[in-house]
């Protein structure tokens, strides 16, 4: 079972050899830590993932959750795992010690979360949302609220949720109808129906703290009149917990994620639901916006994690499954049969999976690391630089990783063939589970609009320019290395296509033709992601090439034969060689398409919106 | 519910306005038919699909099939539907009247099958395979075998299967281990284990006729030593049916297609399994090859059908779901909310779904029609021309339609958002069901190798050249029409990219560098499919443009306003306008990418196969 979830060598390569997270330990904030403590916590995370979360992943899928007598029951096996998760202090992994957390950097937490999610996405709903809801209270709650809820939540004693969606209010959050009425004691009475609430009810914790978006009577329409409330399932009254009129009206039957309850919740059916305002009235959306980066990075990690597990399983299967002779001896009926990893079509699929998964991992950890660097920055300008990178890349992390993550699971099914379609193997569950990631936490269409409509324009385009500068520095360096020439050429070309498309969008926007950027936001996002991944892989290839050359030199490997001997003898050398291959493969197979993609983007074709609706819909 | 499965207007456009199937009625073979009889049978098919098959589609998914006491049970609701299907004579729709079939052209049968499959893919396993197995006996069986089995099968009294796959023999059919031993009476004793047998057992019929691939003792290894046997579940002895030692060892739990039993069958566990040789000894593979076109066209139709149903559902949802204001008034909280079909990102998705679904429909019916034209051809050369088109395009029909069909269902889930992920709506089932189509009947990787390794080379490349000539005639004609200029330009450019890549492959093959075409077979297949679909849509746009102009002229619609009025008033006009839009959209969004795709194909990059295996797999 071991090592079928995440390529730990690659995760550590990103953290230590690419990002040098260890340097954080030279700052006050992280002075307690060292590379060793980072690795220790990741090894512990791997053990928890492999020994506790993974073995119950299929249990969650098959048994699913049930609604019994108004209470949601998760599979029995989840209870023990939740205890382990709590006791390990994982909920507070990146929470400041000031709030009893472990205080690890976000980049390290990313690597741990990847492991947990790869092992069991369904299980991770409850701890993930609890930590997220806890963070809202930590950042915006009153001292009293912090005292009442935070420790209970970060310790996992109580669960947490985010209650945004309503039947008529999905992507359009501003349309929500839940109401809050001021009570004389400063609390609010909440009435409303919420749907699609992840872990909206379960029996893992005795209480669940809902963060509910609602409109206070008389508040402005749209997003400007939304407030956020703490609405516990059981509220504290005189030191004991009493029911707070939150009813679980139903749970959804879903394509995947069966281990995670998706609930419809009714608040205040009996007019006895009390909520506690977080922050100011009508500040719900700004608060949500500030939590969004973390949540969206989390969803990106889900796309990565399931891609990772799918790739690892497909890779293992391709080594073990013997089928047909090598294509070069196809016509010889006596030719030995080979494992399917030797078939070029399978290799091509595996290399694609490898390169995009490694690229996503680097992108996501990098963005987590930028958060860390912003937090320890020497001055505001430096902090702003890193924050800007985070803001710019977050929609890409969310959308590209969830879209491509799905595609990787699809390819794993394809590699396993008929077995891939059967529940006996886990890859079809990965596919079903990961599909939700392109939808929740803002659909990928919304992410694309966020990138094109907001992020590109921020600070007169400074975020984008800064990122392009960063990539320019890298390719300038790599251009000196003849061995990376072709990769650099393809990267630079793709990058200039992206820049051209960006300028085209900006011009269209300024000319009052915003339809074009809006219409092409999603394909633009795809291209943006390709270039970002290309950047990550080139960066990695630069490091791997240097280290591999050093190893060759030290070993005196100066012929192809000797080099190959070293690759066979040294896991590290093989890993570095594989890294370079990822960059080469990705640039030839994906970045090569950038010119076509940017051309489609800049075709100016508006058929999709110009066509009268009647031509699509016949009466 | 009506019209949520297949756009019947489009199906009839392809049959009557594009392919002019009516002309078949001028031949002896089809002289009994007319456009009216064609339409009548399709209307009847639509009724059966909508009234009987569709209402039980989700029942099949939720209840699934069970193995009880060695017998597979399908959902109760399937029995009534199966009766309707039998009684309607649908099993023999395209079977010659000489064998008590209805004798309809294959193109018409394609349209009927699309409806049935869109309504219920799981249900269609049994009738589909029964008809296919019946065809094998019709084409290759002895007179006695024909008498014994064909009527029973074409009437649906007995079921049928194809038993190829074994645990160690999937894509590599030649590796199969099932054995046949000659008996003195001319029968054979069969021993072997088969897996992934669609409808390998069920309780819809009293008997099931398995067509089993096995190796006769002493036969050569590999595919050259495979024979094909009729192995009925119950064999006729002295006029009564006796058990034939075929055991259902298990059924698979699958990602989708829950209504269709996927069985593991053990033949001859008690040494009492009798098989009857079909055709000559060791002729199993040639026979299979001759049935392959029909089977692969069938799988292509499955990809189309689920794409079609997914598109129709997404289109309906997008009209009904009101969410957010139009983007142009995004900042006005009072702006009216609009159905999501008005949002550009949703429109873009719908237009993509529309154009590829319509393109696939045209391609698949066209290939069916080529079969029909070959059957009524005046001479051998004409027949060979149409057969050549079929042979060339079959792998594209199978692979492109199943890959893109899956992608369309994915996009439908995306358009429905959270609802799309829930089983309350049918789109997630479409996605799960259609996934198998890229795997069975030869994985899409196998299809790509068939295209690149066999079909391109047949008759020194004549099949490919003929097809390119055909597309050249069309674009030559369309080039005269200034309104189609841009579509033609993009099509011609994509086509020349395809031709360049094809020549590149041929040169590599001749230079002994077959690795390149083998490695890039799948991306080549994608490009080939893009160009084929582009051809179909351009052809349709040519017709639609002419008809629309005629309508404008007749109505005196000479201003944009008057034209729009006509579109609103006339379903036909709106349909034709939509057709042109499909071609425009597809050429700008998909054909634009051809240059990048061909460049990647011709990069010559062999990273995926050159990289030592050790670099992928660490110990």
From TrEMBL, chains A, B:
InterPro entries: Acyl-CoA_dh-like_C_dom, Acyl-CoA_DH_CS, Acyl-CoA_Oxase/DH_mid-dom, Acyl-CoA_Oxase/DH_mid-dom_sf, AcylCo_DH-like_C, AcylCo_DH/oxidase_C, AcylCoA_DH/ox_N, AcylCoA_DH/ox_N_sf. Residues 282-451 form the Acyl-CoA dehydrogenase/oxidase C-terminal domain. Residues 37-157 form the Acyl-CoA dehydrogenase/oxidase N-terminal domain. SUPFAM superfamilies: Acyl-CoA dehydrogenase C-terminal domain-like, Acyl-CoA dehydrogenase NM domain-like. Residues 162-267 form the Acyl-CoA oxidase/dehydrogenase middle domain. The keyword Flavoprotein applies. It comes from Desulfomonile tiedjei. Homotetramer. One of its GO terms (molecular function) is flavin adenine dinucleotide binding. Residues 477-612 form the Acetyl-CoA dehydrogenase-like C-terminal domain. Gene3D superfamilies: Acyl-CoA dehydrogenase/oxidase, N-terminal domain, Butyryl-CoA Dehydrogenase, subunit A, domain 2, Butyryl-CoA Dehydrogenase, subunit A, domain 3. It holds the Pfam family Acyl-CoA_dh_C. Keywords: FAD, Flavoprotein, Oxidoreductase. It comes from the Bacteria. Its cofactor is FAD. This is Acyl-CoA dehydrogenase. Belongs to the acyl-CoA dehydrogenase family.
